[in-house]
Hints:
Helices cover 72% and strands 0% of the residues. By secondary structure, it is an all-alpha fold. The chain has one domain. The longest helix has 29 residues, at 6-34.
Amino acid sequence: MIEVSPEKTKTFGYTIIALMAFAANSVLCRIALKDNAIDASSFTAIRLLSGIAMFVILLSLKSKKSNDMPKATNGNRWPALMLFLYAVTFSFAYVSLDTGTGALVLFGAVQLTMITASIIAGNRLHLSEWLGLVISFAGLVYLVYPSITTPSIFDFLLMAVSGVAWGAYSLAGRGSSNPLRDTALNFKLTAPLVLILALMTIPLINISLEGVLLAVMSGAFASALGYTVWYIALGGLSATEASVVQLLVPVIAAMGGVLFVSESITTRLVVASVLVLGGILTVVLGGCPRIETVARKPPFRL
């Protein structure tokens, strides 16, 4: 019988919440860009600025000190750069890529980045973990296969870069001891880059009220809050577990379509869900016998 610790239960809960936020982010971005409600650069800028505004509110509620927003340090600039790079390439790639192709390229790049980093760090994967990764990714491919099209090299590279950047951002979060403040600082440090992006893309500006609202929802809620919860969850996940659980995002998005858009439950969705969940379970159980690096990390706090 497998004993589940309270810490693992909390990690599971935080992970599910974060993955739901990721799925919401994808849906909001796709709606905004595919309906031409807003251009990609404006969506990215408003998304990140809305995230900064949300953290100002959260931290002001948490403490009345005037200097509560964390100060910039050189050690925090790398994840902030990865956050910006992920957000901007994600938006521009989804202008042309369809949902299935985008998900496949994005999460394939995330998997490759995080697993490679884990191996370089000296963490050897068990055979069962490799098997779980293959099964989960096969489930993703099966889910999105009907909508896969051959992307242009440029769009493919944009989404691949987005996946690598997100993988790097996630790896940085595994060392966070204060997810709320660390995520707030990461968003805050993207401000100069957002300004540069806005100035460079002035001729491309196309904004509507609907587009702004979608970008604000994506930035303030799905991103700011979702990424904070993700940093909390990462404190209890190995790099391999963190990479494979993200394959649930397209499945959750599809489930959302069933619940909120009255889409039908298809055999493909059921089979893909079983494969992804089975693969994730195989990875988690495969990692149980060994002592994870994550166990030596300091406990997270808000």
